[in-house]
Amino acid sequence: MLSRCCPAPGPETRDTGPGQRSREPDTRSGREAAGRANPSARGRDHPLPRGQSQSSPGRLRRRGPAPGALAGVERDEVTAQGRPAGFRAWLRGHVTLRPPPSRAPMAAVRALMAPRLAAASALAPLPGNTRMPSPRAALHGSAPRPGPKVALVLSGCGVYDGTELHEASAILVHLSRGGAEVQIFAPDVPQMHVIDHTKGQPAESETRNVLTESARIARGKITDLARLSAANHDAAIFPGGFGAAKNLSTFAVDGKDCKVNKDVERVLKEFHEAGKPIGLCCIAPVLAARVLRGVEVTVGHEQEEGGKWPYAGTAEAIKALGAKHCVKGVTEAHVDQKNKVVTTPAFMCETALHHIHDGIGAMVKKVLELTRK
To answer: Has the keyword Mitochondrion been applied to this entry (predicted)?
Structure first.
């Protein structure tokens, strides 16, 4: 490509006599050394001191620093014969040297993230005016949106002693897709107990708080359930996990004789009386069955069917609470149109995760539809 634009650089020629011409290599380092020893012996491509120039034909005009320092060197002129005086001189005259990319943006990012990373790892507190980014706005769509405002009520963090994380996450994804604005709540109470999820056994020496543990799922943006009011929201959703039966109620211990956390009971009654929809999945429908007499809910099938529905006995307990149980598949949601209560089995069934997500998606969709009626 270069050969089409400019003559290829090569060794210089000089006349040695009539009809004779010899070639000598452009040994620049030798010329520079000679120039230092004898200034009068400088070659044609050796720069003159700054401010001086050679005006004779065939000589180069240069400005800038000494050879080898490319930064700041301006384009060389071409000799009168139309041929570059040496490869380096030609290169400087025809190739644009770009400065290396600035490191300033990355330095700014590192400076911005350093205090946040330190705070996240509990190594150092945040500086006085530095604030963590708003995770709720980024993940849960809590920034003002045109869709309905939904309260999500958690019961801790972890399937055996709190909220089932996959169910909570699926609810948040489908609410986000539906354009809803979400605010997350949990009661400020101790957990019934703490389960070591690697063993499935209680950790006798540990105690945890439901609000504090739920904040893990909410990425820190959590509100005490005592502050939840149906007047400020269009719907409420309760994911499952054993926390619904241990921390939001005593169903795991007392069955049909269970008691429900006073704020959970109040919230369920407020939304019901206001005609606002309530969604529940997995084991959480027992809360509605206990508080809202005669409500229709589902926890899936009423027979274990070879282990596919390991918690099928819950259906009988729901009936004992005075509610009506409706058999539904894992990808389905049951809608009690009269009470505006929507339920789906979720992890009451042993099945693939995407089936759980599909059922929760059906529940969320129906809840959002009911907010518009």
So the answer is: yes
